[in-house]
Amino acid sequence: MKISKSLLTLAAACVLTTSLYSCKAKKAVVKPPPVATVPAKAPEPAPVEEKKEEPVAAPAPKPDFDFSNVQFEFNSSVLKTASYPILDNVALEMKKDPAAKFVINGHSSAEGTPEHNLSLSVDRANSVKSYLVNAGLPDSNFAIKGFGEKVPVAPNDTESGRQLNRRVEIKKN
After folding, report:
1. What CATH number has the domain bearing residue 135?
2. Range of the domain at 127
3. Would the pTM count as exceeding 0.70?
4. Which of 26, 68, 156, 163 would give a disulfide with 169, using CB separation of 3.0 to 4.6 Å?
5. What is the rounded distance in angstroms from the CA atom of residue 118 to the CA atom of residue 91?
6. 122-131, pLDDT tens digit by residue?
7. Are residues 135 and 65 in contact, defined by beta-carbon separation less than 8 angstroms?
8. Inside any domain, residue 121
9. How many domains does one find in the chain?
């Protein structure tokens, strides 16, 4: 059997190719040394928040309306500047219960005639009412009473007592 030169060249090329690849040094696969592993901890569960029972809110008590520290100068129905913060607080409390009705009681000291003191006490009550209406409260929520000198809270024989008697008191009706 005669082998052709081209077939022989082809066979030689295959052998040569195969031997070249098979003779190549193989690189050793180096595995890294095993790392000591700590068994994975299961994630800790999130802390459970204890549900605190919220107290059942009782209805808010209606504000107690008993304001009696509104003072006036002698023989005057003009509010003292010191009464403004008091009346501002009164207005805030009254706005919490817009349907509430009030009586504004005016008083005076015993100086002057009973008729004049009665008229002055009504004027003082009206002065307070005007302040509260200007603060945004309905005019219809107020009734006015004047007592003159008849209901003192202190003796009228000293100036400090008379000053305390020149007042307006606001009561819930």
Report:
1. 3.30.1330.60
2. 66-172
3. no
4. 68
5. 25
6. 999 999 999 9
7. no
8. yes
9. 1
